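ping. complex inputs:
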Amino acid sequence: MKLWNRLMCIARRRSPWLFHMNSGSCNGCDIEIVAALSPRYDAEQLGVRLEGSPRHADILCVTGPVTKKALGAVNTVYGQVCGPKAVIAIGSCPATTNVFIDSRTLDGPLDKHLPVDVYVPGCPPRPDAIIAGVARAAAILAERGDNSIAGASGLDSETDETTAVNPPAGDATCKGTQEARQ
Amino acid sequence: MTLLTALARLLVFPGLLFAVPAAWFFLWVERKAVALMQGRVGPPFMQPFWDFVKLLGKQTPPRTGIAGAIMRAWPLLAVSSAAGAVGLLPVLPSSGGFEGDLILLLALLELPSICIIAAGFSSRSIFGEIGSAREAALSVSYNIVFLLAIVSIAASQHTFKLEALAGMHPSFLTVLGIIAILVCLPAKLHINPFSLPNAEQEIYAGPMTEYAGPELAMWELAHGLEWVAGTGLVATLIAPHITAAWLAGGLFVALAFAIVLLLSVLAAATARLAIDSTVRFYWQCTLIFAILAISSAILVRFRS
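pong. complex structure:
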């Protein structure tokens, strides 16, 4: 069992799958995330994969200052990512709402709504900074995942954490994309 | 084929014990080849294994009732049928087999694709349903050509036994059939230019959209096993008849590797086709060759 836990730790560190969520970003950071996967930076060397579905992802990369319009989607997508999971705030917008501070269309910054693990500041941040942030988040994920396995009720504690931080997410976990369908 | 040899083939070689590492290896070769073609370094050697282990340790969304049980069953069914297909391949000389095992192999090769269609619809996600509809349209298109090609090879050899087909002497007709199978393989494995069903980002993840954790790990494994089965089928068909077991095994792995490389390079060099272009490609461009192959096979059979 101990060996399996160690194996799982290594696996979580070496295979971070990302889901990219835009919460009203200007597209600057989004381009830099894609640039991190391009031939020059090649994040796939670390096992990074940009996934199409939040269900497959380990790490949620949020860009943008969380507009009021995007808040519901951010919460739903966070609920759809299965645990153990980590959140990266990419760029200055989700960290501080940047130049849009005090705007009446915003409900940011991001850590008001989700537990953010890693901040990657910059406007936009460089791709190497994003890759460093992903590597840091993967290391956090490896530690956290080990704890949640060590306790037999790791699954419950994770769900509790989700619902405590973010009430609508508990509902979104089971309904997920069915909601989007209706 | 006795029970013992059947079990050995299913569980050891070329079955699970060989096929699961081979599946991870082929998945890595695919990703690495695409990366090298794009001028990147690509994922490390153990990447598919780490992905698999990590997915096993992730949680799945709570699924209750019969719908949840059915959703969990599809990936398992896909893995077991793909593993069974690999186990049926006549890799080693005189390894046994039975009359009509080609038909069983074709059915087992087809089952993962049916599982994907059913999984997308049972997940009740709109992206899953779109992906499943695409997979169904794709399956109807390439399967006609795929089956006609294999039947033409079988008809030219007067047998449905895989071992007899593996030991056949190449002729113009069989070469044509093998080329037709190769043309169908990218669609069967959902890689570019026929990566419509699981079109990443375009329709989220297609039929796999709602799958997470261990279930997704099983889908990845089933995909890898499909790689082994699909490329292995072609490898056994083109491999010359060799009596030494280790040489036959080595040649099988080398040929399958070469085919994986070929398909990966094709995937990296092409972009995704739209569904109508894909269907038109199979129904208009390749079907005519498949019909020519089967009709000439039947003619040859009647004349001899």
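Chain B has a mean pLDDT of 89.
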